[in-house]
Write a structure and sequence with these properties.
Helices cover 33% and strands 26% of the residues. It is an alpha+beta fold and 400 residues long.
């Protein structure tokens, strides 16, 4: 089997990239390679379903531009494909005077990024979220909710109808460069491709190394754990209630999110996972954990963020601590209102100096493009990321 481009990774970013490549290079033979038996199994399938507005991200960054563009594309795609979506809005609450300057920074970022925002006094906040508490808050009315699994399924149907091959159970284990492309060993498959696009998420750095690249970052997995509100207490939250995030840490803090299916999720925290697919505390992959521990960037990160990491681990092990964090947002919450929920794993790129890569990181080579860092809001931005990668491919791979 011979293709022009092989896209590694059947999550929402890989599928959206294949869609954009089909539009930009309609004659190209494309294949999507997904290692699992089903598409969208990992980050896409464990996503809480928020369509982010673009309020958080540094103006001019890839995250800011692609999130704002991707949000509009996502709403349009859902409407065109009959996927249930809701613009429920979000409030970000400052629960102390010390958090107000950071809230003002978010307001400024929202305006700079062209995102609708509204500063809220406590009385106005109570109109939107009667049970939320704040000294001041920020409303983000263009934030929405969707099921990204349904979006991925619609993308896959569109790709199949457009002649794109989709191979599941195709873990890329070998890549060899030839004079005119790459030979790829993927599970039961042996195939050739002129070019490669790596959207492998949790394994993106490993795929890059297989392809002969030397990525300047390494993926460190962080597990995010959720609780669920009991059905009779879901009325405590109308839409989404978020804290003011710590600008030094690329996680948003535990929050309350109404899902498109009517549930209310509480979380997630952010703790080191002992496997790249470590959805449970007890899940340990010795080889992957050893790779993390052998990385000097991990230890520099640990020294820089050890207090935050220790608190996140404590909150993971203590429901009472988790509840206290949520009660800062909605004081009426009680421990008995929460039942254990699921978990997701974030593929976080870490630099050798220990810094957590905050922006999307996309690296272009002679015969490959590697999406090396695409955490939240990558699902929101997926269609825009796909377009961006396709534009890079047209130039780098001479697809015109």
């Amino acid at each position: 089997m011979t293709y022009d481009i092989a896209i590694v990774g059947g999550g929402i970013v890989g599928l959206a990239t294949a869609r954009a490549l089909r539009a930009r290079a309609p004659r190209a033979r494309l294949v999507v390679l997904e290692k699992e038996p089903r598409l969208a199994t990992h980050q896409t399938g464990h996503n809480s379903g928020v369509i982010h507005s673009g309020i958080y991200y540094r103006p001019g960054s890839h995250k800011a531009r692609l999130c704002v563009e991707g949000k509009q594309l996502m709403y349009r795609f859902c409407e065109e494909h009959g996927i249930r979506v809701e613009r429920c809005g979000k409030v970000i609450v400052a629960t102390s005077e010390a958090e107000v300057p950071r809230l003002m920074t978010l307001h400024e970022r929202g305006l700079a990024n062209g995102v609708p925002v509204e500063l809220l006094e406590p009385a106005r906040l109570r109109e939107l979220e009667p049970h939320a508490a704040a000294v001041q808050a920020l409303a983000s009315p263009s934030t929405g909710i969707v099921d990204y699994g349904e979006v991925a399924a619609a993308l896959a149907r569109e790709l199949a109808e457009g002649g794109v091959a989709i191979e599941t159970g195709a873990r890329v284990a070998a890549l060899a460069h030839t004079g005119d492309g790459l030979e790829i060993g993927a599970g039961r498959l042996a195939l050739r491709a002129r070019r490669l696009v790596n959207c492998a998420g949790l394994h993106s750095d490993a795929v890059a190394r297989l392809a002969g690249a030397r990525p300047d970052v390494r993926i460190v997995p962080f597990r995010g754990e959720y609780y669920m509100l009991r059905p009779d207490r879901r009325s405590l939250v109308r839409g989404l209630v978020y804290p003011v995030p710590d600008p030094e840490f690329p996680f948003l803090g535990v929050h309350l999110t109404r899902t498109i299916h009517g549930d209310v999720e509480a979380g997630p925290n952010a703790v080191l996972a002992f496997a790249r697919e470590g959805y449970r505390f007890a899940r340990v992959n010795p080889r992957e954990l050893a790779g993390t521990l052998a990385y000097r960037g991990f230890w520099r990160m640990a020294r820089r963020y050890w207090r935050m990491g220790a608190y996140e681990m404590y909150r993971s092990l203590s429901k009472a601590a988790f509840v206290r964090a949520l009660q800062r947002l909605v004081p009426a919450l009680r421990p008995e209102d929460l039942a254990a929920g699921g978990a997701g794993v974030r593929a976080q790129a870490v630099s050798p100096d220990g810094s957590l890569v905050d922006d999307f990181r996309i690296v272009t080579g002679a015969d490959a493009i590697h999406v090396l860092n695409a955490p939240s809001p990558a699902a929101t931005a997926a269609l825009a990321i796909g377009r961006h990668v396709a534009d890079l491919a047209v130039e780098a791979f001479d697809l015109r």
